[in-house]
């Protein structure tokens, strides 16, 4: 496939990035080799100088990883993608590749727990300061700007409350201040939301989630312009948080069904959210696809669907939440998401247990909150599994 610009996402997911070897294999090959042989000393020299394209060493050039990068770049509409061993490695590389000590990050308060630890406890020790603001109030982002602000960092929708951020508005504020906007697009994937088209400069993925989509491997990626990705790639090449060829191959093949899966996750999640709203034991349901969601209109303007994550508050607090979780027979009790299998989590005692009760209350993460990452089972079976625990 030469020119990727005329194809729809469904086609790109199946075809983009494929490079065939001398055997002309139909399905993409997995290159399990750490290094590549040169035909001559001159060829080796030309490769190392960057004068001749071609693989050198698998820390920074593996054809399977490059196929996965090219496919994801096509899906996000990015000039370049750099793959990493995990989503956290991708976030670290974004900061290490683009920032320096003395610079400042403005980040949403509602981001992945390990991302908060990375910004506050690790990057903080190296002179990069982070200010946390509301994901839904662009005015707070403007107010948090400093002369040294270099990066805005947001996840939309957020975890677990599914708050939706106005990506266009945040990009405009960042650009006025000479900063970049990075969007962790993990919850939507490019099948539902394309942050670069909405004005973001950088897209970050935990490929561990919907891109693999079947809970098999870890992976991550950073996407953006050639100019921005040069720094990110240099960090990868030098520091080595490299995606393995095996994991890249699994993700590459997983992406072929991305659009189909995201539609099915979304359809199930919307049906489940509507069903939960009708249950008397449920105080409120948070799902961007529901008209009752506080940012429903914004979500429908920048996302194709509401996505696959549903959160809800039980009137009975933690007792009711734990009872519901423990009564399930089909759902998996795990914090992972983006899997074919539906997972159920109690955020206050797991993913968000490092926050104080006061911080959780301020963030809206109550003791009765349950998060479901809706999988691809029949939605009637998911509802039946929950109905027993709600009634019991
Ligand atoms: C899981 C996750 C990450 C971290 O990704 P890993 O692949 O586990 O390192 C980052 N951001 C979000 C939103 C996630 O859900």
Task: Write out key terms for the chains shown.
single chain, 392 residues, alpha/beta, Aspartate Aminotransferase, domain 2, Aspartate Aminotransferase, domain 1, 2 domains, 7-stranded mixed beta sheet, 5-stranded mixed beta sheet, 14 helices, 38% helix, binds pyridoxal-5'-phosphate
Topology, pairings included?
Layout: H1 9-15, H2 41-49, H3 63-76, E1 80-84, H4 87-98, E2 104-108, H5 113-122, E3 129-133, H6 138-143, E4 149-155, H7 167-176, E5 180-184, E6 202-206, E7 220-224, H8 226-239, H9 245-254, H10 258-277, E8 282-286, H11 296-302, E9 309-314, H12 317-327, E10 332-333, E11 343-345, H13 357-363, E12 369-373, H14 379-391
Parallel strand pairs: 2-3, 2-4, 4-5, 5-6, 10-11
Antiparallel strand pairs: 1-7, 6-7, 8-9, 9-12, 11-12
Helix pairs in contact: 1-3, 3-9, 4-8, 12-14
The structure holds pyridoxal-5'-phosphate (PLP).
Residues 86-88, 112, 115, 155, 159, 184, 186, 206, 208-209, 218, 220 line the site of pyridoxal-5'-phosphate.
Structure commentary:
This protein has 392 residues and is an alpha/beta fold. The protein is 38% helix and 15% strand. Strands 1-7-6-5-4-2-3 form a 7-stranded mixed beta sheet, with helices on both faces. The protein has a 5-stranded mixed beta sheet with strand order 8-9-12-11-10. Helix 3 packs parallel to helix 9 (245-254) and helix 4 packs across helix 8. It binds pyridoxal-5'-phosphate (PLP).
């Amino acid at each position: 496939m030469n020119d990727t610009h005329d194809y729809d996402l469904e086609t790109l997911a199946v075809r983009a990035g494929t490079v065939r070897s001398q055997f002309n294999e139909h399905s993409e090959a997995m290159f399990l080799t750490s290094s590549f042989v040169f035909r001559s000393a001159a060829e080796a020299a030309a490769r190392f100088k960057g004068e001749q394209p071609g693989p050198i060493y698998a820390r920074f050039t593996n054809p399977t990883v490059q196929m996965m990068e090219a496919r994801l770049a096509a899906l996000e509409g990015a000039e370049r993608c750099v793959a990493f061993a995990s989503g956290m490695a991708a976030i670290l590389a974004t900061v290490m590749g683009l920032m320096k000590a003395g610079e400042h990050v403005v980040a949403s308060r509602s981001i992945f727990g390990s991302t908060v630890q990375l910004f506050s406890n690790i990057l903080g020790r190296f002179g990069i300061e982070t200010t946390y603001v509301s994901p839904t109030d662009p005015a707070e982002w403007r107010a948090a700007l400093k002369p040294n602000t270099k990066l805005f960092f947001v996840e939309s929708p957020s975890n677990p409350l599914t708050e939706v951020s106005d990506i266009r508005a945040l990009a405009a504020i960042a650009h006025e201040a000479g900063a970049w906007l990075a969007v962790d697009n993990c919850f939507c994937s490019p099948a539902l939301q394309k942050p670069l088209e909405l004005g973001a400069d950088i897209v970050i993925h935990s490929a561990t989630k919907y891109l693999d989509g079947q809970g098999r491997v870890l992976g991550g990626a950073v996407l953006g312009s050639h100019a921005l990705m040069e720094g990110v790639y240099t960090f990868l090449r030098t520091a080595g948080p490299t995606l393995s060829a095996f994991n890249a191959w699994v993700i590459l093949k997983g992406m072929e069904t991305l659009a189909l899966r995201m539609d099915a996750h979304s359809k199930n999640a919307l049906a489940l959210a509507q069903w939960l709203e009708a249950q008397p034991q449920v105080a409120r349901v948070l799902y961007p696809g529901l008209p009752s969601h506080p940012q429903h209109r914004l979500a429908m303007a920048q996302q194709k669907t509401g996505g696959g994550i549903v959160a809800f508050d039980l009137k009975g607090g933690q007792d009711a939440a734990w009872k519901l979780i423990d009564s399930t027979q089909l759902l998996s009790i795990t914090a992972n998401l983006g899997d074919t299998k539906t997972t159920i989590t109690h955020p206050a005692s797991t993913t968000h247990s490092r926050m104080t009760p006061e911080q959780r209350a301020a963030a809206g993460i109550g003791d009765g909150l349950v998060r479901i990452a809706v999988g691809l089972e029949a939605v009637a079976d998911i509802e039946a599994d929950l109905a027993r625990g709600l009634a019991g």
